[in-house]
Design a protein that fits this description.
Blueprint: E1 6-8, H1 33-43, E2 49-52, H2 64-73, E3 77-82, H3 87-96, E4 100-106, H4 130-148, E5 151-157, H5 167-179, H6 186-189, E6 195-199, E7 202-207, H7 218-230, H8 235-241, H9 246-249, E8 266-269, E9 272-278, E10 287-291, E11 296-300, H10 320-332, E12 338-341, H11 350-374, E13 378-379, H12 380-386, H13 401-420, E14 424-429, E15 432-437
Parallel strand pairs: 1-2, 2-3, 3-4, 4-5, 5-7, 11-12
Antiparallel strand pairs: 6-7, 8-9, 9-10, 10-11, 13-15, 14-15
Helix pairs in contact: 1-2, 3-4, 4-5, 10-11, 11-13, 12-13
Length: about 450
């Protein structure tokens, strides 16, 4: 058995006492070299990645550099989570370690006190204030990405339970906008995203109180399957899908060997200059590649012919269909003579196909609204069963189970679109999520002459 990652707590000692971190009641301890070598020998056959993160501040450990070398000796890569307050002491050492792949910085670790940090909370800080703290982390992240190809994730704690930034997050974002000139309007953008690319290799991310599992984990799919049961699937159906769902079985490994691209970035190869165009919708990170000189668009799954791209619900996009329609509008007027979709050999006129896809989804939206209005109290599964689909099946009961999964996902993206615009609402009844149409807003009455 192989594991995507193994967490190792090299120390439970921390230099801060953050309100959002559960206090550690165990005796204060740090691993010694013998203990660490034993742990690494035990886990090395079963994973490629170890995470220095549970309790404690890893940068306080006096043997951190040696531990990173031991990981390199055993072919392991390290993700390290830190509050970043001791970065100024360890920066050069960290940059020099080949085993270190990613740094995660908890930017809510230090409150804003206008430069007046409280000494009882911040031991051994060499900072003039919180702004210096954030800037030092941002500049380390840029060095790590540009010079050493290491990843950095700058984390904001989502203390409100929403993606609405609190005052402290807003202050952090303002500093980051100054440090990363291409990252403007972060507060608005982070309302719709769990994570944003600030620069190649550097991400700004929300972190809820409960750690969110990644898409490649079985735990992620267990949680998702429970949600789909609330949306109307039976538990027996989800048990069957556990081993046969293409969305799960064919999902790529999580960014173990990928370079992340930013909107507007240019790839050059063999005389081609391909500009990255961010087009979320079919997936949260979908991109098209456009060569302006050759008037060629590599459309991926964004614009297809003969079939329509599947637009389903994504956890990181509260309105996936709305994002998709916006992305269609973004590419519609590009001068394109050669359009290259990712599926099948058929191609055609970009503007005409964008208009067709847009009209198609608006028709589907009205069909979806009619179903909700005419059949109040149905789950997404039941609504999908009433909607019309172009598939060779006599009834919803005849749909292959994997096709039901995608159909319900697409139905939910249309339901989300309508809910975001105030036309329908979702409520919970007996453990199931059901939908109802809302009354149309009243037109303001005209004044009498």
């Amino acid at each position: 058995m192989r594991f995507k990652r193994v967490y190792i707590e090299i120390s439970n000692i921390c230099n801060l006492h953050c309100s959002f971190c559960t206090p550690c009641t165990r005796p204060r301890r740090s691993m010694d070299e013998v203990q660490f070598r034993h742990v690494i020998r035990e886990v090395a056959p079963y994973t490629q990645f170890v995470y220095f993160h549970i309790k404690g501040e890893p940068l306080m450990h006096p043997l951190l550099g040696l531990f990173l070398d031991i990981c390199e000796e055993n072919g392991l890569q390290v993700h390290l989570t830190t509050n970043g307050t001791l970065l100024y002491k360890q920066e050069e050492m960290l940059l020099s370690k080949t085993a270190l792949r990613q740094m995660n910085f908890s930017l809510h670790s230090i409150p804003f006190h206008n430069g007046k940090d409280e000494p009882e909370f911040y031991n051994d800080l060499d900072l003039t204030g919180a702004e210096t703290y954030v800037r030092s982390i941002a500049r380390f992240a840029k060095r790590a990405a540009r010079e050493k190809k290491k990843f950095s994730v700058l984390r904001l704690w989502n203390l409100t339970g929403t993606r609405e930034a609190d005052p402290q997050s807003l202050a952090v974002m303002k500093i980051l906008e100054e440090e990363f000139p291409g990252a403007s309007g972060l507060a608005e953008k982070m309302k719709d995203h769990r994570s944003l690319l600030l620069e190649r290799g550097i991400f700004l991310s929300w972190e809820d109180r409960e750690e969110l599992v990644e898409r490649g984990d079985d735990d992620f799919w267990r949680l998702r399957n429970e949600r789909y049961i609330r949306d109307g699937f039976s538990r027996e159906e989800m048990d069957v899908l556990w081993g046969s769902n293409p969305a799960k079985e064919m999902a790529p490994q999580i960014a173990d060997h990928y370079d992340c691209l930013a909107d507007g970035e240019v790839l050059e190869y063999g005389g081609w200059r391909l500009r990255c165009i961010f087009t979320p919708g079919h997936s949260p990170g979908h991109m098209c590649l456009y060569d302006k000189d050759r008037k060629t668009l590599f459309a991926g799954d964004h614009v297809l012919f003969h079939i329509t791209p599947n637009i389903c619900r994504w956890e990181s996009m509260p309105d996936a269909l709305g994002s998709y329609l916006d992305s269609l509008a973004r590419v519609r007027d590009l001068p394109v003579e050669l359009l290259l979709p990712a599926h099948r050999s058929e191609t055609g006129d970009l503007r005409a196909r964008v208009d067709e896809l847009t009209a198609h989804h608006h028709r589907r939206l009205e069909d979806t609204f009619s179903v909700v209005q005419g059949h109040p109290g149905l789950t997404a599964y039941q609504i999908a069963g009433v909607m019309r689909w172009q598939i060779r099946c006599r009834s919803w009961e005849d749909f292959p189970l994997t096709q039901k999964f995608f159909a319900v996902g697409e139905a939910m993206s249309h339901l989300d679109y309508l809910r975001c615009r105030g036309r329908i609402e979702m409520t919970e009844q007996n453990g199931k999520l059901v939908w109802h149409a809302l009354p149309a807003p009243q037109e303001p009455s005209g004044s009498q002459a």
